[in-house]
Amino acid sequence: MIRYLNSDFLIIGGGVAGLSTAQRLLQQGALVTLLERGEVGQEASWAGGGILSPLCPWNYPDEVTRLTTRGAELFSAWAKELHAVTGIDPEYETSGMVVLPPFDTQEAEQWCAAHRAYSVHQVRATDYNLLAQGDALYLPEVAQVRNPRLLRALRQHVESLGGRVIEQCAVSDIVVENGRVQTLITSSGKCNAQNYIVTAGAWSKEVLGRNALRLDIKPIRGQMLLFKFDVSPLRHIVLQDGLYLIPRRDGHLLVGSTLEDVGFDQRTTREARDMLWQRAQKLLPSLRNMSLVQHWAGLRPASPHNIPTIGRHPQLDNLYLNSGHFRYGVTMAPSSVEILLNEITGAQQPFDVTPYQAGWGA
């Protein structure tokens, strides 16, 4: 079967990067088709916790925090827009985050003082219903979103704007002639458009194939646990040495997450489940009596230093990439789309975006 798609843009990948890119292109009047190898919004974007901040922002390079800070600034209005047009509430909430030791207090305070989007306060962990000794840090501006709801709202909005979504459509080859992509070979046949954008997350390098140049994006598995309380015992996100607890409005509590370099293996493991549960119980003893509601794994699109690659391919005029966001694809989604569309249209960028082209290694 051959599909000749009359589209300005053909987007490969239906996670938060692909859906948000499609949404903004459609709002600018473009004709957009989105291809997804499985089901839209069911990979890393769905599997994450939805914390709209780097876990400890002072531990990341400026290229990461610049993009996450801009994304966080845009998120509230974006969530309200989606709620208004779809009726689906992404549950954006400024819940704040309590950071438990170990941490460098001086480094955290100096970093927050230099970045107006964050403030930090020294607090007592026991004041936050946590079984932990000593001081903690509280970051009141950290927000969260319920990412599965965000993804449902995005898909609905994309389709209501006239975007075409084709699921179970895997790309096997990108046909290039004279410095331009001519067509895609997919499991549904040949697909054509004027421009092509790869937003395939952990699979982006495989989709690009020989056109990936020196791109270094690979899957890193993260496992998560879900519990359900009648009333959440926590009001804030809690973080300790890579472990986080995320309370939702309806009493659900997420516990995550692992960082596992196991290729494209999405299986969950008993070892990870036990480790996460035991660590969480030490902070929140009431978890000992809870039943596990769900245990899942997702594959993050890992890139060196957590810095994504966003923009035009160095050698192919009509091919673009928006991928490699590692742990912060949801947080970075609105800012990544902003700089991608600015490049496509020639509009002024909000900051220097050259670091987000470095991933090609060209």
Structural write-up:
α1 links the parallel β1 (9-12) and β2 (32-35). The chain is α/β, with parallel strands linked by helices and 362 residues long. The model has no long low-confidence stretch (mean pLDDT 94). The chain is globular, with a radius of gyration of 20 Å. The strands form three sheets. An eight-stranded mixed beta sheet has the order 4-5-3-12-13-14-11-15. It has a six-stranded mixed beta sheet with strand order 6-2-1-10-17-16. It folds into two domains: 9-48 and 150-216 and 305-360, FAD/NAD(P)-binding domain (3-Layer(bba) Sandwich); 96-140 and 218-304, D-Amino Acid Oxidase, Chain A, domain 2 (2-Layer Sandwich). It contains eight helices and 17 strands.
CATH class type of the largest domain: Alpha Beta
Please report the number of helical segments: 8
Strand tally: 17
Assign the CATH architecture of the largest domain: 3-Layer(bba) Sandwich
Count of separate structural domains: 2
CATH fourth-tier homologous superfamily of the largest domain: FAD/NAD(P)-binding domain
Q: What is the H-and-E element order?
A: EHEHHEHEEHEEEEEHEEEEHEEEH
Distance between the termini: 36 Å
Percent range for β-strand residues: 15-25%
Query: How much is the average pLDDT?
Result: 94
Sheet of most strands: 8 strands, mixed
Shape verdict: globular
User: Rounded to an integer, what's the Rg over CA atoms?
Assistant: 20 Å
Structural class: alpha/beta
Poorly predicted residue ranges: none
CATH topology of the largest domain: FAD/NAD(P)-binding domain
* Major sheet: arrangement of strands: 4-5-3-12-13-14-11-15
Q: Determine the fraction of residues in helical runs and give it as a percent range.
A: 25-40%
